[in-house]
Design brief:
Blueprint: E1 2-5, H1 7-14, H2 22-29, E2 34-38, H3 39-50, H4 60-69, E3 73-75, H5 79-85, H6 95-107, E4 110-113, E5 125-127
Parallel strand pairs: 1-2, 1-4, 2-3, 4-5
Helix pairs in contact: 3-4, 5-6
């Protein structure tokens, strides 16, 4: 199965924190799954890091390299993803989260998230705790 992780899960995974939900770890450690991260997540984390947000424990460039070195594939943002955003209900206003939702829908990937608002969308989304 193709799995797209949201930004929070990527940060918690990189920080090896106990915040990473056990259900997410099950998906990540299953060798049958192909793991992806979005370029939108890298962008979001770079913005937060540049603003001095304390919840980003590692430079996004280091996170990016570590994800690639550990078998994750990067999912770039395409115009098709952007067009899919138009069809989304106005449940969530965060543009980074909305593009992740659109990417998962467009690509037929399961989006893993710990965000209850994201999980309210119909589509291939799984709330993990």
């Amino acid at each position: 199965m193709k799995i797209l992780l949201d930004s929070h899960l990527l940060v918690w995974l990189a920080a090896a924190t106990t915040k990473l939900p056990p259900a997410a770890r099950v998906f990540i450690e299953d060798n049958e799954n192909t793991l992806f991260f979005s370029s939108a997540s890298v962008w979001e984390l770079m913005v937060k890091y540049s603003l001095g947000k304390n919840d980003i424990p590692v430079h996004p460039r280091v996170l990016h390299r570590a994800l690639l070195d550990n078998g994750f594939a990067e999912l770039p943002i395409t115009s098709e993803h952007a067009f899919t955003v138009e069809s989304l209900a106005s449940i969530h206003k965060d543009p980074f989260d909305r593009i992740l939702i659109a990417q998962s829908m467009t690509e037929g990937m399961l989006l893993l998230t710990s965000d209850e608002t994201i999980a309210r969308y119909n589509g291939p989304i799984r709330l993990v705790r």
